[in-house]
UniProtKB/TrEMBL annotation:
Essential cofactor(s): pyridoxal 5'-phosphate
Functional pathway: Amino-acid biosynthesis; L-histidine biosynthesis; L-histidine from 5-phospho-alpha-D-ribose 1-diphosphate: step 7/9
Family assignment from sequence similarity: Belongs to the class-II pyridoxal-phosphate-dependent aminotransferase family. Histidinol-phosphate aminotransferase subfamily.
PANTHER family found in the cross-reference section: HISTIDINOL-PHOSPHATE AMINOTRANSFERASE, HISTIDINOL-PHOSPHATE AMINOTRANSFERASE 2
Species of origin: Thiovibrio frasassiensis
Reaction catalyzed: L-histidinol phosphate + 2-oxoglutarate = 3-(imidazol-4-yl)-2-oxopropyl phosphate + L-glutamate
Protein name as annotated: Histidinol-phosphate aminotransferase
Gene (name only): hisC
Biological process, per Gene Ontology: L-histidine biosynthetic process
Enzyme Commission (EC) number: 2.6.1.9
Residue numbers bearing the N6-(pyridoxal phosphate)lysine modification: 224
Complexes and interactors: Homodimer.
Pfam families reported for this sequence: Aminotran_1_2 (PF00155)
Keywords: Amino-acid biosynthesis, Aminotransferase, Histidine biosynthesis, Pyridoxal phosphate, Transferase
Phylogenetic classification of the source organism: Bacteria, Pseudomonadati, Thermodesulfobacteriota, Desulfobulbia, Desulfobulbales
Ranges of residues in domain Aminotransferase class I/classII large: 34-357
Length: 367
């Protein structure tokens, strides 16, 4: 079939979704698999959120609140901003796309790092924009080089902080120094999907920069610390003038009714939130120690996942683990051929991973 497709769309590679757990089990002839590949919250959502979602189902014949009014009011009060500084989306992915749709014309440029969250560059290409990519240095954003890459065509800069997949962060001071080098017309988007897991002493507070000369947008999500990945609800925190333009390109009713109900209830459950953060830090600490005992290197993390240098072919190790019903993420496609990335699981899952890793390391050749 011959279709009138623009080159930027024809050459776009779709985001690679993972196969359903049930399908992987069928393919490999295994049962009882565990998934430690997608940076999900192993504890799951707050019981309050589950109850609120369940209660919302009786109203599925109604459209959701197009303004997310109650969610905006509650979130604004909780984080100390005005509701008109918030834009909600079908996951923070949608807010990324809204920024690109509102502020990037074909042929204009966006700067990102490499490796980073794949969606930035794909969304830019779909818009007809140009990706200018700056490699990480020692697994950190090279803020100096990013600043040097800015030119008259630059419209947006995306910085995931913490970075995915490296789990590293930069400081308030580093970011402030970076902004001093950025022109007024360039929007800097801080993707803070994992900010809840960052140690408080290392946490950059995006609210400090919302009135900066350079327009700064923070992107956050309910998928990680709040455990609502299946509902797809995220938000952007920004100056009200930027929010106004995003609302002009936003689709109506973009956050569904159960998602709004679940997010609103999750915000009120501080006990479950704190339990998630403590559980994650304990899991990272335990897993890191056990991995090191096996002769691998566990990298420090400010997220709910971390990188491991297994000192072997990461793809082969991934396959060896998969045959044991343990799903992790190989990092070959990110330029780290001997690394895997794992998410903190429940204690029994973490123990099973270490047992499976011990076996897998004996099946692959070390480098």
């Amino acid at each position: 079939m011959k279709l009138p497709v623009r080159d930027n769309i024809a050459s776009l590679i779709p985001y690679p979704p993972g196969k359903p757990l049930e399908e992987l089990e069928r393919e490999y002839g295994i049962t009882g698999s565990i998934k430690l590949a997608s940076n999900e919250n192993a504890l799951g959502p707050s019981p309050k959120a589950v109850a609120a979602v369940t209660d919302s189902l009786k109203n599925l014949h109604r459209y959701p609140d197009g303004s997310c009014y109650y969610l905006a009011q509650a979130l604004a009060e909780k984080i100390g901003v005005s509701p008109n500084q918030l834009v909600f989306g079908n996951g923070s992915n949608e807010v990324i796309q809204l920024l690109i749709a509102a502020f990037l014309a074909p042929g204009e440029e966006v700067i990102t790092s490499q490796p980073t969250f794949l969606v930035y560059q794909k969304a830019v290409q779909a818009q007809g924009g140009v990706n200018r990519v700056v490699p990480l240095v020692d697994m950190h954003h090279d803020l100096d080089e990013i600043a040097r890459q800015i030119n008259e065509k630059t419209r947006l800069i995306f910085l995931d902080n913490p970075n995915n997949p490296c789990a590293t962060v930069f400081s308030n001071e580093s970011f402030a120094a970076f902004l001093d080098k950025v022109p007024d017309q360039v929007i800097v988007a801080l993707d803070e999907a994992y900010v809840d897991f960052v140690e408080p002493s290392l946490r950059l507070d995006a609210r400090d920069f919302l009135k900066h000369r350079v327009p700064v947008v923070a992107l956050r999500t309910f998928s990680k610390a709040y455990g609502l990945a299946g509902l797809r609800v995220g938000y952007g925190l920004m100056h009200a003038d930027i929010a106004d333009y995003l609302h002009r390109v936003r689709q109506p009713f973009n956050v569904n009714l159960p998602a709004q109900a679940g997010a609103l209830a999750a915000l009120s459950d501080d006990e479950h939130y704190e339990k998630t953060i403590a559980f994650t830090r304990e899991g990272i600490s335990w897993l890191s120690r056990e991995v090191e005992k096996l002769g691998c290197h566990a990298f420090p993390s400010q997220t709910n996942f971390f990188l491991i240098d297994v000192k072997a072919d990461g793809k082969k190790l991934y396959e060896a683990l998969l045959h044991q019903g343990v799903i992790v993420r190989p990092m070959n496609a990110y330029g780290y051929p001997t690394y895997i990335r794992i998410t903190v699981g429940l204690p029994a899952e973490n123990q099973r991973f270490i047992k499976a890793l011990t076996t897998a390391l004996g099946e692959v050749e070390r480098v």
